[in-house]
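task queued by scheduler; priority normal; single chain, no ligands, no partner chains; default sampling; output format set to structure tokens
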Amino acid sequence: MVNRLKKLRKENNEKDKLLSQENRRLMTDMVVYLRSSNLCDYDIEAIRRELFGMIYEAQLRGETADQAIGENYKGFCDELMESGRQKSFYEKAMEWAYVLVAGLGSLFIVEAVFSGVLYGAFFHGGFTITITLGFAVSALLIVFGAWAVYGYITRYSFKLPGKGLSRYRIFFLIGFVLYFSGTIGVRMLMDDIRLFQVNVFISLAVFAAAYLIVKGFGDRASSCRE
């Protein structure tokens, strides 16, 4: 099933190149919105294939996408999503595990680089990095914040594109600035509280192993087993 998913996604990516710029932008908005649902990845790609067929046929006839699927793109996608298979608790858990491992691992690397620990490890033999409460809390806030941004963008994919400041864009910008400022404040207030020290290379190896394990299980789960 994993290979079938990759093959279908590749085919869809190639087909999208046949669409006009306007239709390609619409297709992107619709696929992004589909990802806000609880649908399996394979079913999202299957729906994407159906959407391409309808929009491309209309394009060949010289018609607009509105004439093929109607003006209510969101409602049309909602109808299509009702027929798809939903992710199980296990599949959602794997998705969250992937986000946490990839996110925390990336932030740990950034912390090691900018704190000078990696430089010290290579040139002065210092292999430990101090984990503070400020880093731990801010890292979790960044990961969950990034997930929230992803959820907002997918949910309002039809509202965010275009020019000007719509209320959805304004809410997004205000929320982003406040959340980012709060995360920086938490880091500054709690950074003096030391939790423990870890070996930077062992930690990187653990994150790498966890990433490969979670990604392996996640790839199998993302396609939704029949």
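post-processing summary
- The mean pLDDT is 86.
- The longest strand covers residues 194-199.
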